[in-house]
Amino acid sequence: MKRVTGLGGIFLKATDPQALGAWYRKHLGLDVNAWGGAVLRWADDQPGGSTTWSLVGQDSDQFAPSAAPFMVNFRVADLHGLLAALRREGCQVLEKVHESDYGKFGWVLDPEGNKVELWEPPPGR
Questions:
Q1: Where is the VOC domain (predicted)?
Q2: Using CA atoms, how far apart are residues 125 and 110, in angstroms rounded to an integer?
């Protein structure tokens, strides 16, 4: 019997859902619908795409400087280009960029202080 087969969604509490949705629409390109969410479908041109679910210990600082007990990771096509655009748009982009065999990682804080991880996978992934 199959149990979990993928990530069905990520849900965030927000002080002002409409304003936060508008920020995600403007700066990260999410198609936020009137019901308050977006459906992200895997495209046929992204073979081998995957979604990761992971647990971290209570003492982890992985989500810092955010105080939230979660972090969202979005796949992006051009990390450095997006980070530059977010800086021009006045977003709070964290300076650190991590590059490894797993791809390129960068981070931005949304207006409510939630840390958002942006991931450009390596070619062919």
A1: 6-121
A2: 27
